[in-house]
Amino acid sequence: MLGTALSSDSDDCSSGSETDLQQTPQTQEDPDITQQQLSLVKDIESGRFNRNLDIAINLEEFLARNSGIIAGGEHGTLIHVALRWSRYKSFDQFKPLFRLLVSKYPKLLETRNRQGETALHFAIQEKQSSAALFLCENAPPETVTRAIGCRGQAKGNCLHAAIRMRSNSHVTVQLISMCEKPSLLDRDDHGLTPLHLAVDFARCRIPGNEEVVNTLIARCQEAAYTLDIDDLSPFRFHLRTRQDFLARRYRRKTRQPSTSSSKIKEDREAALQRPERTESSEFETPPGDQETHAATSPAFRKANKGNDEKKKNVMDTFNTLLDEMETASYRLQNILKIFSPSLDSKQTIKKGHRGPDAEDARTVFEWLRLNGVMKVIRVAILDDFDTPHSEETIETALKGFDVEELDWMKKDICSETIRCAAPNVRILHLYWSGSNPVLRAWSEPDGLARLAKLEKVILTASQGIETRSRARENVETFLRRLENSITQVRPEAPVQITWQFDDDNMAKGSYTTSNLPISSLEPWISHLLKVGEFLSSLSQARHQQDLAATRKVRVCLIDDGVDVADLQTHEQLAGGASFIHSEATCRISPWYISEENHGTNMARLLQNCAPGMTKIYAAKVDVVNGRLSHATLNKALEWAAERKVDMICIGRPVGVRSGYSEESSRLRVETIRAMRRLVDEEIPVVCAGASRLDALEAGGSDLTHNLFDLLQWEARALLQVCSWARDDTLTRGPWDDNKSCFYVPTDGLPPSQDDASAKTNLDDASLAVAFGCALSALVIVVAQLSAESTSVNHRTLRDALSSMVVRGKGEGLVDVSRLSQFIEHQTRRQEKPEQDIGGLNKMAQYLFRNT
Description:
The protein is α/β, with parallel strands linked by helices. It has three domains: about 30-250, Alpha Horseshoe (Serine Threonine Protein Phosphatase 5, Tetratricopeptide repeat), CATH 1.25.40.20; about 375-505, no CATH class; about 525-750 and about 760-850, 3-Layer(aba) Sandwich (Rossmann fold), CATH 3.40.50. It is built from 31 helices and 19 strands. A seven-stranded parallel sheet has the order 8-11-7-14-16-18-19, with helices on both faces. Helix 17 (about 360-370) links the parallel strand 1 (about 335) and strand 2 (about 375-380). Helix 4 packs across helix 6, helix 17 (about 360-370) packs parallel to helix 18 and helix 20 (about 435-440) runs parallel beside helix 21 (about 470-490). The longest helix is centred in the middle third of the chain and has 22 residues, at about 305-330.
């Protein structure tokens, strides 16, 4: 009978349940079976098949005669054939057949045709919504649940197909109510969930679509927060599709009218006389967005004079509305830690363009006030020093908020304004223009000393018209006066005060090597900085000349997060994710806050050594005793692989417990699996090497190994970078070309300027990883800019670093001086070395000569 002739082909269901191999149809195609299937379907449609299948005798006779053709035809099962035949005919005549098949053999719903479509998926694809619903209503619920979750074309399940094919909203809602929750979170080949498809702006005007969206969210609220491959939630995906839709409609409406036939003939003849176009770059404007030669002719521009300004005004209004829609979707808490709405990087502060009655800051804080925010952890405003906000605006904007840290970049702000705007401020940033009376006013007993909860003052000073020594003397006097005033008012609560000149860009708690004098650095680091500055200027020159732009190197930084409010790294951040979940608060620790500033300092150093050439993807993982959590690291590696980054940087060791346990064995298997995926994706991992043994031993006796030391021979994507100064005591044999362990010097840096906490400083081993990651990024940029573009992966990057390794004395030390010599050679020959890529090409030949 039928049961012995069936086999499973439904192996791609999101529900994950396995089907019985003895009860699902075969996929072997038989032409005879196909003809018999078609003959039976035609008989049913024409009325020649006059047996009532609801009668038991007729049912047994039908199964005995046709059991061999229920599956195995060229078009799939008998359900597939009937659905194909009834595409343009009445469906009612096939209801008894469908009721019999799905009730007697429910696995037929999960059986695929040669296109990989199940019967249910095929019904939806053929826009036979009523047939799909009928099949689901007459099959067992558990089978329907699995069938809805089965993947079809483009790896989408039946919900994807129903929404994409714009099925009847009632049918789609019924399918949503019948499926399991994992099916609601499934993503197709484009990374879209059913909710992403439903909120596409082009589908919003379909009758009943709102009910579909509401049902999806009601059944699975997690779907509203699921991100696609571009890190867009369904709401942000809706905004983007709306913007694209309106932009396309605007282009159609503003498309320039055609000119006369004679003018078109002249333009055609002129076009034929033009030289052939060179090969276009991947960043070229799409053809649909380009203006025609007729539209750009002088006569046509004259006739349409004024249209550009009108177009600009319309687009500015449109973008403003989109920004309002985006910020209106934020759900804020009473205590606001970080609020950083997405801004266009081109919208920087323009000096002298803010009027005396500027309302921008007041409007933002009024909006926060209306959303119920009462306490703000930190306020950081990048103000215009030429025409800053008035003190009245600052008081009005911050009135009613409990601000803990105030960093409003307005020079010489009045202490009374600070007291009115933020009376409970704990950390205060001051900006001084160089006027001594301002310092004296701040340091009076009725000045800053009246701030009862003040704990720390950070002063950024300008030299002004005075000499450097006189300005320094004024600041030191201010520090003594302020300390005395605070002691008089509240002697039991001293205030910590730090200061620096505004042209001393030494970031607190980190090494910003690009701002240090070259003479104070280790020669190795000075060479690295020269290479970074040269490549940065060359990339900018190419961008200004409209040549092929250099894509920024995408680096995934796995650490304790990166501070999004840090001005030095803000433009560098491309996104992030956190893998720390607090069971006590049931919340995820935000990736844009770095508790120890370790990740922020790593990002700063990377930006300084490779200025403007990297984009950071911050992956926040748990840190215990200075070591990364093994479990959260595995998740971060998988996330980085999905983002298809160019490189992964891990500046801390990963603790592995000594001895064998089932948990540690499982985690190690997951790490090896993640590393193999990175090898397949050709993504190198720059991590700390044996130089971190001292740090490992300091945290505890049960965590005595670095994970990457154990995986050194199993993970080919690993590139370990060690500190030369720390490793002088280690025993090293001759360096082997097959090794993936490299050494860089870190003993030439001055001490950190931050005296608040020693834990914010990067140790030598972390510095070595940061330098190694920066050097790797520069190698990738060299490959992009050179005449013969070279694809850089973990193998070519290892070969490039190996080509710089010193032989003989100092085995394993990476020498950057040769790259710097190429640049110096070009500087002697050209006034503008960034315009001559001769040295760059030699640099590429030196690095990639073995590839």
